[in-house]
Inverse folding.
């Protein structure tokens, strides 16, 4: 009887637990940029999930977020490091130049971040997962 009750309790618990979906934060992207910034010939590859309804536009020294608000707590450390020049809830202006790139939500992007010059970072899409 006790065994049956424990099995029923375990089954109920497992049915109530939901596996959380992937979340998005610009921290991973900023961390990758910070890792290669000002270090010529350095490269890092990472995967970034962009949720449905979010579009990220990267150009010049700006990263713009459409459909997502960037929390100040996310960028505070990067302001201290000197990576970020200006912060707005929908836009981050960096102290390094980036190539032009648009990332559309609902996909996982495998991105390669390379420092091509002291103040210039190249971001290349290696592959898109979930098209």
């Amino acid at each position: 009887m006790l065994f049956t009750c424990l099995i029923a309790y375990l089954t109920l618990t497992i049915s109530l637990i939901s596996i959380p979906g992937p979340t998005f934060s610009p921290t991973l992207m900023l961390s990758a940029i910070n890792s290669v910034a000002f270090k010529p010939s350095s490269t890092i590859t990472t995967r970034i999930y962009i949720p449905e309804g979010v579009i990220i536009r990267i150009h010049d020294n700006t990263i713009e977020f459409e459909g997502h608000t960037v929390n100040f707590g996310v960028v505070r450390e990067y302001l201290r490091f000197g990576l970020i020049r200006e912060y707005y809830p929908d836009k981050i202006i960096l102290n390094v130049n980036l190539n032009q790139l648009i990332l559309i939500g609902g996909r996982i992007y495998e991105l390669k971040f390379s420092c091509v010059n002291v103040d210039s970072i190249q971001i290349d899409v290696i592959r898109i997962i979930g098209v």
